[in-house]
Amino acid sequence: MLIAGFPAGSFQTNCYVVAPAAGEECVIVDPGQNAVGDLDDVLREHRLKPVAVLVTHGHIDHMWSVAPVCGARDVPAWIHPEDRDLLSDPGKGLSLATRQQLFGGLAFTEPDDVRELADGEVLCLAGMELTVDHTPGHTRGSVTFRLPSTEEIPDVLFSGDLLFAGSIGRTDLPGGDYPTILRSLATKCLPLPEDTMVLPGHGPQTTIGHERATNPYLAEAAPYAGPTRGI
């Protein structure tokens, strides 16, 4: 398994490239602001051919370069339907002050080929199986992507802005909701194996076991998992 990542743009949003091995097809996760140059370098270095762009949610720092990347490579973009409108109107997911500061004369459009994600769906792309989990709370259409373990690596979770090392995604922007993100954490993160590698939308990687032991938000989320034993 080959996973290459880099922080893109002023938001330092992690963009990931995932492939079974060098020289094969790959998927791109969250190409953010000014991601194209670094992304091209990664693809060239590892001789990779993209077949899809996966978007964990519609915030601009995660989808800024989706349309140009899809257009240049003639590949589809996958996003949850609750966040699809943010591809062409990312201002809907931001505060008024942030919209005024960021956009000016910028215009965004959907890629030519947009496909919608569903909770529990398994995407068979580039010779890999990625499981989609709908994890609202940061946005209404937030999702995570899971890869099963291989001989080389444990399970992998691309967590977007659901879970970070020591923290979780903010819920004060349009579409955010704190009790909802706690439920997503409880039902989609807490049940995962301890050694699951978490590759978040910002900051360093971590593991589910480390976050379960140290992240105060996961402790707060635990009651939202409901009863774990019958009565």
User: In the CATH scheme, what's the topology name?
Assistant: Metallo-beta-lactamase, Chain A
Give the uncertain stretches in residue-range form: 227-231
Judging by the overall fold, what is the CATH architecture?
4-Layer Sandwich
Counting structural domains, the number is 1
Quick take:
Keywords: Hydrolase, Metal-binding, Zinc. This protein has 231 residues and is of the alpha/beta class. 24% of the residues lie in helices and 27% in strands.
Walk me through the topology.
Elements: E1 2-8, E2 13-19, E3 25-29, H1 36-46, E4 49-54, H2 60-63, H3 66-73, E5 77-79, H4 96-102, E6 114-116, E7 122-125, E8 128-134, E9 143-147, E10 156-160, E11 163-164, E12 167-168, H5 178-189, E13 197-200, E14 206-207, H6 208-214, H7 216-221
Parallel strand pairs: 3-4, 4-5, 5-6, 10-13
Antiparallel strand pairs: 1-2, 2-3, 7-8, 8-9, 9-10, 11-12, 13-14
List its salient traits:
metal ion binding; 231 residues; single chain; alpha/beta; six-stranded mixed beta sheet; Metallo-beta-lactamase, Chain A; disordered C terminus; 7 helices
